[in-house]
Design a protein that fits this description.
- It is built from 14 helices and no strands.
- It has 264 residues and is mainly alpha-helical.
- It has one domain.
- The longest helix is centred in the middle third of the chain and has 28 residues.
- The radius of gyration is 19 Å and the shape is globular.
């Protein structure tokens, strides 16, 4: 792992330029620019507040809007890490063929682009909290501090999932289509529109407790919305899952990095 980090850092100017190029190409010639990445979750949050707020006890759109928006930001980050990660190596095939660079760079390119949009979305969540809920902006910024370790874990997990998705797509090219379908189902099994209590009441609470997205929802959404710290158990589950996926990604790189060129 340390060797991978050193190699990736050695070529930092290369992958930073790739991320900048992706952002420029994505929004080139548009009026709103990067604002387009926020339009969808904001509009979806408005729809959710109108349609699904009644699912919550003591429904109040002022508290529901940050709840929906934060949940969407985290879920979309997970989804993009895998669905966009499926194209990591095909997208960078020309670089892989021509340059003997660490292959870990290309999933990092994908994840950093998604991370920029994710952090902007979290900024919108903070603005929404300050505007709609009582409490000064300084207090809301203090609530952000307990989430910093969770952001680090989430970045590592996103990179690891992106690596595995990229390799899976190379050897099984239906992977991206499968991921798109599964995430559509997965969305409705994740407490974004509803509270976790609803799954427990329906007798399927295990679907939430076994869902890694739920752990990160608790790690990030709970401090931001309530100002309370998540339990150590949630940190343990999230850290353990991240360590397992990271180990799988590093093993995949060590075995497949030199062979992948023959399958592109």
């Amino acid at each position: 792992m340390l060797n991978q980090i050193r190699e990736v850092w050695k070529y930092r100017y290369f992958w930073m330029s790739l991320v900048k190029m992706d952002l420029r190409l994505r929004y080139r010639g548009t009026v709103l620019g990067i604002g387009w990445s926020l339009l969808n979750p904001i509009l979806m949050t408005i729809v959710f507040c109108i349609v699904f707020s009644s699912w919550h006890e003591n429904a109040d759109w002022r508290s529901d809007a940050p709840y929906f928006l934060c949940g969407l930001a985290i879920f979309n980050y997970f989804r993009d890490a895998i669905t966009s990660g499926c194209q990591n190596f095909f997208r960078n095939e020309s670089y892989i063929r021509q340059c003997p660079l660490p292959i870990a760079i290309y999933p990092l390119r994908t994840v950093l682009g998604s991370s920029i949009h994710f952090m902007i979305s979290i900024g919108v969540v903070l603005m929404t909290l300050v505007l709609l809920l009582p409490g000064s902006g300084i207090e809301r910024l203090i609530y952000l501090l307990p989430t910093l370790p969770a952001f680090g874990l989430l970045l590592i997990l996103a990179w690891s999932m992106s690596v595995l998705a990229g390799f899976a797509q190379v050897y099984f090219q239906d992977m991206q289509h499968l991921a798109d379908v599964l995430f559509q189902v997965f969305f409705f099994l994740t407490p974004i529109l509803f509270k976790m209590d609803l799954l427990v009441q329906k007798g399927v609470g295990w679907l939430g407790y076994c869902n890694p997205v739920v752990w990160f929802l608790d790690l990030i959404r709970t401090p931001l919305l309530t100002g309370t710290l998540p339990s150590l158990e949630v940190y343990a589950w999230a850290s353990g899952f991240t360590a397992v996926v990271l180990s799988g990604a590093l093993i995949a790189i060590s075995y497949l990095e030199k062979r992948i060129i023959f399958h592109l």
